[in-house]
Design brief:
The chain has helices at about 1-15, 30-40, 70-75, 90-100, 115-125, 130-150, 180-190, 205-210, 230-235, 235-240, 245, 255-260, 265-275; strands at about 25-30, 45-50, 80-85, 105-110, 160-165, 175, 190-195, 200-205, 215-220, 250-255. The chain has about 280 residues and is of the alpha/beta class.
């Protein structure tokens, strides 16, 4: 009953939004939406998910909800003829219903490398039937990535140890190990992930953070339950005795730019490198 009410509320909100007669696409995933726009096809977007915040113009589109908590009713109520979704959308039972509907569904795999980003562009370009635009965008992104990564290189002894903190909710540190977007961009930007003992994102003990001895704390620039201001962050027992706390060294960046691995990733690398080593981006 609640799901039906939510779907009706979503539909009502969407009905108030002037429809673009050329719009046909629902884009799910911030990086996917960025690629659609970078290909010059954002005029074809009919709706987007909550993680799709760039370019700013897409925020005027109907929002079908968070990509990992989709409602089939909400997704299908916008009437797309094509859904392009980043990997990890869900829940699985919602995707089963969506895939069973008479709507083309294209999934774009996650990426942690330059080649992975180029693959994303290729898949989206093929789905939108603009292969020439995709080829041009891929060539541009590849060149920018190569330059950004090369410019960020530095001797191992000079690299700063970076701890990516996903959240501090409840006073507990949830941080990145290896195999994550945070780990990948830290390395691309010339840093060292301070935690390499596990894969993915996990809650970390005070002792583990002390052993990691980060020089810099990296966080997403956001507000809410997962955020912490500098005073709160550096007063936490897990952080208080680290080199990062002694220098109050924290870098906050837009989450989509930092972790999205879309067409702006080279910009994210340059900005992170400049923030870590206090140089011009």
């Amino acid at each position: 009953m609640v799901g039906a009410f939510v779907a009706l509320a979503v539909s009502a909100q969407q009905a108030e939004t002037p429809a673009n007669p050329h719009a046909e696409i629902l884009s799910i995933g911030g990086a996917v939406t960025e690629i659609v726009a970078a290909l010059g096809q954002d005029h074809r977007l009919k709706a987007r998910d909550t993680t799709s915040t760039y370019p700013p113009s897409v925020q005027d589109l109907p929002d079908v909800g968070y990509m990992r908590a989709l409602s089939p009713e909400g997704v299908l109520s916008v009437g797309p003829t094509l859904i392009i979704s980043g990997e990890g959308a869900g829940p699985p039972e919602a995707l089963d219903v969506i895939r069973a509907a008479d709507v083309e569904f294209v999934e774009v795999p996650d990426a942690l490398t330059t080649d992975g980003i180029l693959r994303k562009i290729d898949i989206v370009g093929e789905a939108l039937e603009v292969p020439d635009r995709a080829d041009a965008l891929a060539a541009k992104v590849e060149a920018e990535m190569q330059t950004a990564i090369e410019d960020a290189r530095r001797p191992e002894a000079d690299k700063k140890r970076v701890l990516f903190v996903l959240s501090t909710q409840g006073g507990r540190i949830n941080a990145s190990g290896t195999g994550t977007a945070a780990d990948a961009i830290i390395r691309m930007a010339g840093g060292v992930n301070a935690i390499s003992e596990f894969e993915g994102y996990k809650q970390v003990t005070d002792e583990a953070i002390g052993t990691a001895a980060p020089d810099v704390i990296l966080m997403m620039d956001r507000t809410g339950d997962h955020a912490a201001d500098d005073d709160t962050l550096f007063a936490m027992p897990a952080i208080r005795l680290t080199p990062a706390a002694q220098d109050r060294a924290v870098v906050r960046m837009d989450g989509l730019l930092l972790l999205g691995f879309g067409p702006r990733t080279a910009t994210g690398i340059r900005q992170l490198n400049a923030a870590l080593y206090e140089t011009d981006s």
